[in-house]
Amino acid sequence: MSEQEKMDPTRRNLLIATSVAGGAAGLGAAVPFVASMIPSQRARAAGAPVEVDISRIAPGELAVIEWRGKPVWVIRRTQEMLDSLKGADARLTDPASKSSEQPRYAQNEYRSEKPELMVMEGVCTHLGCSPQLKSSDAKAEMGADWSGGFYCPCHGSKFDYAGRVFRGAPAPTNLIVPPYTIVSESTLVIGEDKETKGA
Ligand code: FES
Known about the structure:
The protein is built from four helices and ten strands. With about 200 residues, it is mostly beta strands. Strand 7 and strand 8 form a beta hairpin. The longest helix has 5 residues, at about 40-45. It binds FE2/S2 (inorganic) cluster. FE2/S2 (inorganic) cluster binds near residues 126, 128 and 154.
């Protein structure tokens, strides 16, 4: 029996889609690649934590997982993506995420527990649209100083690869980071961490 098959069925994962940050495929062109473990309707309605197999998310890829009816992004950031987060503070509304929502372990320059693994809600903090992934190749569309991140087409908010919103955007705060636990190299649980368990 595989590790996944041994899991509590109420916490099984729904890994919906993936897209490649550096390639032509954007979120709109996301291709489903696995939908193997679907939590029961009852568990999903109750907002149960979702267990995700992250072993198949390659560097530069973004997977979309449904949790509490919202899309949660899991991105395996490349070194180039991490480097793009440096030196941008003056252009950001809340560079240190002091006014934004994230667990304590994600209030750092990467907004994540492990720099390479970014977990955040794919929901714009302005009016709730879903931003689109725009790689650093999108300079013609996004501007010469664009080094990659996310763009919300509804009213033009821009975010970096840590979900930090750029100044002048209508979105007031950075994208929300939900509670999560990195169980192993291959397993992530969204919706639960030590703090929520102890609550
Ligand atoms: S909903 Fe994203 S900018 Fe308005």
